[in-house]
Design goal:
The complex is a heterodimer of chains A (408) and B (315).
Chain A (H helix, E strand, L loop, with lengths): L1 H28 L2 E7 L6 H20 L8 E7 L4 H14 L4 E4 L3 H8 L2 H4 L3 E3 L16 E3 L4 H15 L3 E5 L4 H17 L4 E2 L14 H10 L3 E4 L4 H12 L8 E4 L5 H7 L8 E4 L9 H14 L5 H20 L4 H8 L3 E4 L2 E4 L12 E9 L4 E9 L2 H4 L3 H4 L4
Chain B lengths: L1 H22 L3 H25 L8 H18 L3 H23 L4 H21 L1 H4 L5 E2 L17 H24 L1 H11 L1 H6 L4 H27 L1 E2 L6 H14 L6 H16 L6 H15 L3 H10 L5
Antiparallel strand pairs in B: 1-2
Classes of the chains: A alpha/beta (408), B mainly alpha (315).
Chain lengths: 408, 315
């Protein structure tokens, strides 16, 4: 009796060892999983769609070329609903349930502020590919959070140069009523005052709720205030609705210098077509036609072939983030969260915007915005082209680490 | 005999909940925490709805004020967590007393509309008072310190926080249960069934309703206080009327006629949401269909239907 029991236990133990052994062998073959959190519902859902396309494209390209560390890449994507509580829950689900190796995404500055402090607990790096608040690479920075895309300060320093050149004196703003709209105006004001001390920053500003849909009263009050220039930081469905309503009200016929801080998002240009008025200034974190390098040419061509669209800055950010993780995992020689996070620091890699570096001091890449005037329709993509294009160098528009409030 | 079975089942469930961090995948700690907090929120709502017969659409106001109170205290004063819970309960009760004082005089749809209006007023304040509430971005970046003065349980650890939430929710649920079972609770049920008759007995219906509303507000505030550190943010969405709808859905889903119905509904709600969003973004559509079916065919909720079935009571 006893010997049978012992034999059974021995068999069971051997079987268990066999299972564990095969699991260990399998682990090397298992794909590396990236977890993404983007807006996938509501008025800005097209941003999440473009980001997923960029991400997918990079993953397919990498897998076709042998993967990362000999393993294939996979991804899981979750909806943030533009809400930080939901985004935090989604990140926990990705890390603990889906067992992803690294995190990326985050569309809104408000969401980024909410999630930044929770990332170290997850022990996985997060590359922010869209949200632009300087705080997450400033006073809220930490070892695990990186940003690959242009932040608000970088964009507003470029914007201020254009605004100073335009000669317009009295400036006001229309922006979404949360961190992004407020901080865009604050940093624009600061940068413009430096470039042009004569500029007047008006107290009559308009901050409609994000997702407001009805902008008429705000457009009215701004037109009544009679400014020379208006900085507009609306984005997503808000921006599309705003442009349609402002056109109907004759806003663009007034003698006003109009600057859309993220107006050259191809999601928006795609939705508006020729309804985007000619002659307004459009900013963007990345413009597909502005970078003359091989990586960018390949990216734009592959994106066009796959999706028949011009890649937006959100698509580019997601695409570049996948390649950043490839480089970091190869540098670290592992997918271990803390080690990959460490490898990203100070790392340079090839992106469609050229070779870019995650600065070790604050984890922000040294990148600059592109600004241009809405020109004739681009027949290839059915969107407005950009004329009078200014591509700002990241080195010229990024504050020194000491000024960011980040200490790492 | 029946009571013994109920007690055994309850003890088994409780033991399972205590053991959850060791037996379930790590992610279930988060789902478990959310179920417990939302269950308490829904149970506090059911005191007003299921027991007293008043459909409030502003219950998120008390939940949200508890969350904001906790976030603000942790951010600016760095008090122990226990103190936050007490303050949040007080804040929820006080706000409920004020809103209730103005609302309980009305019945049915007028009461629902009035609570909805007051709830959205609180939402608007949180949304627009940027200097205090940080507007639509909400309050984030606060740290959890000690549980009580000198009692450092490292609340930042999700498993520890789960156990703290479990302890608080069990105690709160027990208190709430005793309230429901007391003569006060009996009078509330009598009011739901026939307010005229209760007032003919010489009882002040309005005062009882206000008391129920205030107690519910206190426990909703407590659930909000538990949620803010879990989500690491107190945001205006927590005060929005759609948040007020969640306990309504959970109570109906679980069964309004049972004390544990709302907890049961919260568990179904959270677990289904997590599973369904795994393969489709259309979670709300699935929920809508389920609710329609519940209301049409299973009025007693999942828990009620289940109990009927177990007891062989197919009427």
């Amino acid at each position: 009796m006893a010997s049978t029991a012992i034999r059974r236990m021995a068999v069971a133990a051997l079987a268990a060892a066999g299972i564990v052994g095969s699991m260990a062998a399998q682990a090397a073959e298992d794909p590396i999983k990236l977890g993404a959190v983007y807006i996938r519902s509501g008025s800005a859902s097209s941003y999440g769609e473009f980001a997923e396309q960029g991400m997918k494209l990079a993953i397919e390209q990498i897998n076709d070329n042998g993967g990362v560390l000999g393993r294939q890449l996979e991804y899981e994507i979750e909806d943030s609903q533009g809400n930080s509580g939901t985004a935090i829950q989604a990140m926990r689900k990705l890390v603990y349930q889906e067992n992803v190796d690294a995190l990326m995404g985050i569309d809104s500055s408000g969401v980024a502020q909410g999630v930044a402090s929770t990332v170290p607990q997850l022990q996985k790096p997060l590359i922010i590919t869209h949200a632009a608040t300087p705080d997450v690479t400033g006073k809220m920075c930490n070892d695990y959070v990186y940003r690959i895309s242009v932040n608000i300060i970088q964009n507003m320093r470029g914007a201020a140069e254009i605004a100073a050149e335009s000669g317009a004196k009295r400036w006001t703003t229309i922006g979404p009523d949360y961190a992004f709209g407020r901080q865009s105006w604050d940093f624009f004001s600061e940068a413009l005052k430096e470039k042009n001390p004569d500029a007047e920053l008006m107290s009559e500003t308009a901050f409609p709720r994000f997702g407001a849909e009805e902008f008429t009263p705000f457009i009215n009050s701004i037109m009544d205030a009679d400014p020379d220039g208006v900085l507009i930081s609306l984005w997503g469905g808000d921006l599309v609705n705003f442009v349609r309503q402002a056109s109907d009200m004759g806003f663009f016929d007034e003698d006003i210098e109009v600057m859309f801080t993220v107006g050259a998002a191809t999601e928006v240009l795609d939705a508006l077509g020729d309804k985007m008025p000619e002659g307004v200034w459009l900013g963007t974190r990345y413009w597909f036609d502005a970078y003359d390098n091989e990586t960018n040419r390949d990216f734009v061509a592959a994106y066009k072939e796959r999706y028949d669209k011009a890649p937006s800055y959100n698509a580019e950010g997601a695409y570049a983030a996948v390649y950043a993780y490839k480089a970091a995992m190869e540098k670290a020689g592992t997918t271990d969260g803390p080690k990959v996070a460490e490898a990203l620091s100070g790392m340079s890699f090839d992106s469609p915007m050229g070779e870019i570096t995650f600065r070790a001091g604050d984890h922000q890449t040294l990148v600059g915005p592109t600004w241009g005037k809405a020109g004739p329709m681009d027949d290839e993509f059915g969107i407005r082209s950009l004329t009078d294009v200014h591509v700002f160098d990241g080195k010229d528009v990024t504050p020194a680490v000491e000024e960011t409030g980040c200490s790492l | 005999m029946k009571n013994a079975i109920v007690l055994i089942v309850l003890a088994a469930v409780l033991a399972g909940l205590v053991a959850l961090p060791w037996v379930a995948p790590y992610f279930y700690i988060f789902l478990g925490t959310e179920v417990l907090i939302l269950g308490l929120f829904a149970a506090s709502f059911n005191l007003v709805f299921g027991y007293s017969g008043m459909l409030s659409f502003g219950h998120a106001a008390f939940y949200g004020i508890g969350a904001y109170a906790t976030a603000l205290i942790l951010l600016h004063l760095e008090w122990p967590f226990l103190a936050c819970l007490v303050v949040a309960m007080g804040a929820g009760a006080l706000l409920a007393l004020v809103i209730g004082f103005l609302s309980v005089r009305l019945d049915e749809v007028y009461f629902a509309m009035l609570t909805l209006a007051f709830g959205m007023m609180v939402f608007a304040v949180a949304h627009q008072w940027r200097s205090v509430t940080n507007g639509s971005d909400g309050i984030a970046g606060f740290m959890l310190g000690d549980f009580a003065p000198g009692v450092d349980w490292s609340l930042g650890d999700p498993a520890v926080y789960y156990h703290v939430v479990l302890g608080v929710v069990v105690v709160a649920a027990a208190v709430l249960y005793l309230i429901c079972r007391s003569s006060f609770g009996l009078i509330l049920r009598a009011i739901r069934q026939n307010p005229e008759r209760v007032s003919f007995c010489g009882l002040d219906v309005r005062r009882y309703r206000l008391a129920a509303f205030t107690v519910a507000g206190a426990f909703a505030g407590l659930s909000g206080a538990l949620m803010a550190p879990f989500l690491r943010v107190a945001s205006p969405e927590m005060l929005h009327w759609s948040m007020s709808a969640e306990p309504v859905l959970m109570s109906i889903l679980g069964g309004t006629g049972y004390f544990l119905g709302p907890f049961f509904g919260a568990a179904i709600f959270v677990l289904l949401e997590s599973w369904i969003t795994g393969f489709t973004d259309a979670w709300m559509l699935v929920l809508g269909v389920m609710l329609a079916l519940m209301v049409m065919f299973f009025r007693r909720g999942v828990l009620g239907t289940l109990l009927d079935w177990v007891q062989g009571n197919h009427d």
